[in-house]
Amino acid sequence: MTSDATARQRISELRQQLSTASRAYHERDELLIPDAEYDALMRELEALEAAHPQLDSVDSPSHQVGGRPSSRFAEVVHAVPMLSLGNAFSEEEVRDFVRRIDERLGRAQLLFSAEPKLDGLAISLRYEDGVFVQGATRGDGSTGEDVSANLRQIRVIPDRLDGEGWPAVLEVRGEVYMPRADFEKYNEQARLHGGKVLANPRNGAAGSLRQLDPKVSAQRPLSFYAYGTGEVNGGELPATHSATLAQLDRWGFPVSDLCRVVEGADGLLDYYRDIGARRDGLPFDIDGVVYKLDDRDGQQAMGFVARAPRWAIAHKFPAQEQTTTVEAIEIQIGRTGAATPVARLQPVQVAGVTVTNATLHNADQIARLDVRVGDAVIVRRAGDVIPEVVSVIAERRPEGTQPWTMPAACPVCGAEIVREEGAAAWRCSGELSCPAQRKETIAHFASRRAMDIDGLGDRYIETLVDAGIVRGVADLYRLSRDQLLHLKLVLDAADPSALAASLKPHLPAEGSGAVLNAVLRLDGDAANWRAQALALPVAFEWNTKKIATRWADNLIAAIDASRDATLERLLFALGIEHVGESTAKALAQWFGDLELIRQLPWPLFKRVPDIGGEVARSLGHFFEQEGNQQALDALLKVGRVRIRDSHLPSAKLRDGLDLAQLLVEAEIPGITRLRAEKLVAAMPSAQQILDAEPEHFVAAGLPEDTARGLAQWLEGDNHGQLLLKGEERMRELLQLAPELAAQPAGPLDGRTAVLTGTLVRLTRDAAKARLEALGAKVAGSVSKKTAFVVAGSEAGSKLDKAVELGVEVWDEERLLAFLAEHGQQP
C-alpha cells in the first residue's frame, strides 16, 4: 500500500505534468508528450485518487475537459457541455463497459453505435432556423473559442441546412480534421518553399482553425465529420443516435460511412478489429473507435460521471506516437543519391513495432525542429509508413547539445554532398562511384535510351551487385556466358535445395560434391542466399539439353553491341543529375569529345545553348569527383567502350569564348558583361585578377560594392582556381575549334517544333532527328515561341494549347512532304 505522503507527492507530480501537457495541447496545439504517455499518466493519477479519496480534488486534471479557451478569441459558453470520453485499452475493459450498462438497464438486447475516433479538433456548430450562426471549439468543455469565421472557410460545413424539419436551434458536434493526402501534399510544398511544416494532421487541423486571419484557414486543407448534437430547441431528433446521424446527413452534414450499429460486446470488438485492419488505408488519421449506446432513453438512464458519459467510451488503438531519445543523426544515401538524414533512436515500441530509426526528411526539417543528438523526441509511425520524428521535447534537452549540420562528404563514397538548386533536397554527387547508388546507376546505364543492353533487367542487376560480381558499369563488360547462365539458375531456384538440383547436371564430376554441399549449407531463409550462391566459385560443363542458353547469348551480344557507342548516348548513360537526352546531345554536338568534356570547369558548360547554371554546376560536380573519373577510366579501357563519333568542338564555341564571358558565366555577384569587359581591359589574365586588390577593381571601373563582392568571391570555395582552370580550358577550346565558316542555313534554323500524338510512318525519335537535321529545335511543350506543332493521332493537350495560342499545326502527311522536299526521306 502506498503511504499518504508518497501518494500525495506522486499525485502532485502527475497533476503538474498532465496540466502542462493539456494546456500545450489544447491551447497552443503543441504536443509535449504522446497520447499514449498522456493516457498512461492519467490512468495512474485516476488509480491513485481512487485509492486515496481524501487526496482527490475537483481541480484535478482527471476531472477536467480540454483546456482553457484562448484570450485571442471571443468566448462561447456551451449550452450543453462538450464532455470528454473515458478510454478502454483492452478487450476486458470493453466487456466491463457493456456489463455495467447491462446491469443498470437490464435489457435483453444492447445496441451500440460504433464510429471511428478521428484525430482532429472537436467543434460545435450552432444553427438557428437552418442558418449557421456560430462555431466554437470545445475549450474546457464549458467554454470554448468563437472560430466561426474560420469554420466558414471549410467547404463541407453547410452555411444553410438542406431539406426541412430541422429544429429552430440545432447544435451539431463533430471533428475538424486534415486528410492524410492533403496533409502530405501541404508539407511537401512547405518543405520545397521553406514554409512552416505541420507536425501531424491533428496539430495541422487545430492550428489552422485557430488562425486570426480566416484567409490562412482557407488555404489549409480542412474537412469535417459530424458525430452528434448538443443543444436542440424547437424540434425533436430521432430516438436513436444512429438515426440522428442519418438525419444530419440528410440536412447536409458529412457523416462517416464507417459508422455501424452493432450488438453487445462481441459486436463492438468485431468492429474494433475490422477498423483496425483498415486503419492504415483510411484517408484520415484515427486513434481508436467510439462506442455509444444507441437509444437516447438508455443514455439518459446511464447519465454521466465527472467529465464523461457512462453510455460511451473510446477504445484506443496501440499508440502510433511514443517518446524516445536521439542517439545519433546519420546520412542515408538512396539509390538515386538522395541524402536523407536519419535519426538513430533508443529502441521504443510504437504501434506494436520496435522502432530504432526514424526519418528526418531533410536538413531544413532538422533545422525547423532543431533536432540534436541527445534530444528527447516524439516519434510517429502509421502503418507501413517509415517512422518520423514529429517534434522535440525542448524541456528535456541535455546541456551541451549542438545544432546539427549536413556533412560535406558522402559517408559511403566520400564524394561531395550538394544541395539541389531551389529545393530542400541534398544528394551525393558520386553517381558512378557511390556503392549506394550502384544498382540505380547500372539500371540507367543499361536502359534502352542509354547504352541499350537489352535483357539486363532489374532482377539480374540486383543479384549481380549483391554478389559483388558487378561493382560498377565497367564490370558489365567483364561478364561471361558462364556467369550469366549461373545467374539464371540461381534466380529460377526457389531455395538452395532446388538450386543444387538444377546445378548438378552442369558440373564436372570431379569437385561437384564440394560445390553442391556448399550450396546446400546456404541459409534458405536469408534474403541474400542467392547472392551468396552466385559468388561461389563454380566451374561448369554446360549440358545444353538441360538449360536454355539463348538469353545469355543474346545478353552477351547486346553488351558487345553497346561497346561501340555514340558520345551522346554515353553521356546520357552516365546518369548525371539534370542531364537528359537533349542535354547529352547538345554537349556532344558542341564539344565533340569526352576527354575534353570531363576536364571542363562548370562555367564553360554554359556556353552551350539551353544549359543554365543548375545543369552546368551538376556537370561540374560530377566530373570533379575522383571516383567518377576513376569509373570513367575503367569504362574506357581498351576493349570495353569506344566512342565512335568523337570530333572537334563546334566552331560556334569561338563566339564569345573570352575571359570577360568566363567572368559572367561564373555568376560572380554584380559582374555584368560590360563590367567584365572593363575589368579585363585593365587586367587581361585571370592571374592578374587574382593578384589585384579591391581598389584596383574600382580603378578598372567597377562600383565599390561590386569590387568588394568580387574580392570576397575570389577568396572563397576555390573560386580562384576555377577562373585559372577556366581560362586554360578556354584557350584549349579556341585552339581546337575550327574557324567559323559561313554555313548555309537550314530551312528550319531558329524555329521550334513540337511533336504530339502517334505518327504512323515515323517513330517520334525518327521525326525528331529529321527535323533537327534541318535546323529545328524540337521542344517538349508548346509556347508562343513554337513555330509549328506536328499532331499525330490521339494528340492531346499540346494540340489544344497550339490551337489556343494560334500556333500552326501540321499533320503527318504535311510533315512527310516537307521532309521529302528537303531530302529527308522517311
TrEMBL record:
Record keywords: DNA damage, DNA repair, DNA replication, Ligase, Magnesium, Manganese, Metal-binding, NAD, Zinc
Listed SUPFAM superfamilies: BRCT domain, DNA ligase/mRNA capping enzyme, catalytic domain, Nucleic acid-binding proteins, RuvA domain 2-like
GO biological process: DNA repair; DNA replication
Active-site residue numbers: 117
Catalytic activity: NAD(+) + (deoxyribonucleotide)n-3'-hydroxyl + 5'-phospho-(deoxyribonucleotide)m = (deoxyribonucleotide)n+m + AMP + beta-nicotinamide D-nucleotide
Keyword Signal: no
Residues where Zn(2+) binds: 410, 413, 428, 434
Names of required cofactors: Mg(2+); Mn(2+)
Residues bound to NAD(+): 35-39, 84-85, 115, 138, 175, 292, 316
Enzyme Commission number(s) from the entry: 6.5.1.2
Annotated Gene Ontology cellular component terms: cytosol
Record-annotated BRCT domain positions: 743-826
Domain of life: Bacteria
Pfam families: BRCT (PF00533), DNA_ligase_aden (PF01653), DNA_ligase_ZBD (PF03119), HHH_2 (PF12826), OB_DNA_ligase (PF03120)
An example molecular function term from Gene Ontology annotations: DNA ligase (NAD+) activity
CDD domains, A to Z: BRCT_DNA_ligase_like, LIGANc
Record family assignment: Belongs to the NAD-dependent DNA ligase family. LigA subfamily.
Task performed by this protein: DNA ligase that catalyzes the formation of phosphodiester linkages between 5'-phosphoryl and 3'-hydroxyl groups in double-stranded DNA using NAD as a coenzyme and as the energy source for the reaction. It is essential for DNA replication and repair of damaged DNA.
Protein name, entry field: DNA ligase
Originating species: Stenotrophomonas daejeonensis
